[in-house]
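Subject: mismatched residue count in predicted assembly?

I count 476 residues in my input, but I want to confirm that the predicted structure covers every chain. Input:
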Amino acid sequence: MMVAIILLILVIAAVVSQLSKSKKKAWIGMKTTRFLLLGYVGLLILLAGASLLLPLNSPSIEMMSEEEVEKSMELQDKVMNEAFRGSFEEENGLDVVEKWNFPITGDELGITTINDYYVQVFIEKSPDMGKEIQVTHYSGKTIVNGMDLTDKKGAIQMEIQGNKLEIKNPSHVAVNLAEISSGFPFQQFSSEKVEWFLGESYGNIGMDVLYIKAPEGLKIEGEALYVN
Amino acid sequence: MYLTESNIRDVVFKQYRYKLQAYMGVFTSLMFIQVLGVLFSISGTGSMGGSAGTFSYDVKTYSGSLVAIFTLIWAFSNGISLTTKQHRYDDFNFIATRQVSNFANVLFLATASVIAAFTGLLTTYALRLVVSQFLRTPSIAVDQLSLVEACKGLGGFFLYILLFASVGYFIGMLAQMNKIVAFLLPVLLIVVITIQAYLGGEATLIVDIGSFYVLEASFLLFAVKSVITTFFFFLLAYMLGNRLEVGV
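Triage response: the counts match. Full output below for your records.
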């Protein structure tokens, strides 16, 4: 890496010194150079104007501050840690993606995932539930460099077949994005964080959690943890 | 007593105007370097990706930093090239002292820095246009600079360019004094970095020096830091220049 940088500097320095020779050895005449420079500045002004006028081909993505990112990560960790210790609150602060209510016909329920899809399932037996189960899909925030991509994720599909609850994987989603920044000399005095050449980048894909509230007498089979 | 008396200021400005015309080549190299920077930047200055389950993301970064760095290297090289024998002999077209020649060089470098900073700022907008409109990639602007922030950025970039030009000018002058210095300086730098890496496990010399300027969020403080450093390097170069023998 260091060698590549030094080589690049040397190449640029060589090019600059060759092109910057004084008028006696200049390979382009003074008038042509002046004309080129004016043309270059004019073209850049036109491009800059167009860049400011034309809307950015921007998807609707909410930007999160560093503080918000930190809070949402902490929240996801807290909820998951508590759930693994056996305590799960319905109002836990995570995003509720979808809710389903399925009627139950028998005393048994099997939970199966399709296409080897893995999702964390927590079950709470509740006396309030009659002959139905309630499934809630929670999701932690998916954040990449401050961009909230949570709603770009595909939704989990759920179906009940007899006494089997089938959890189908969401459709594959590939998000391609371009992040444009002015560069360090211009960002340095703006409200944005000062960054070195490439800056720090981070990404967190939010965890999907299914929380099932089931009647007390229902026997459930499948990969799940009991809470509360 | 002479029939025509000229003051230093007039001679400096005459020589400065001469340099602006004679050294137009530096702007050819500026254009070349900045276009090269934009071309390199179009392929992205960084990328990151990840996947979990059925979701994957790929984020490419397009930053004006590369053009800025290329411009700083250009400024550094220009500072050096102004001290070469060929350029110094050009000054003999005028009846001038070394003091006059140095002032004219500083003025020329400052003017070139203004132009480079201005075009550097514009290239960041050009890059934004190319990425969002021509590459058609869904784009997010990380920073939306206000007019004040853009002006501060422009001023800051100008000071950076002038700083690099002054360092180049000083090193160039040093190398003119003694040719071995031209060889010793990069060797010394690599040795210091290597020793630091050996002792501390991390070569942070350049990062530490850079952080002193780059991590300064206050424009005023940054201006003070860079102006003092630039002045210091030009002063040293001036003092070295005065010690150069005629014909060296």
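Residues 8-47+59-177+216-243 of chain B form one domain. Marking this ticket as 'not a bug'.
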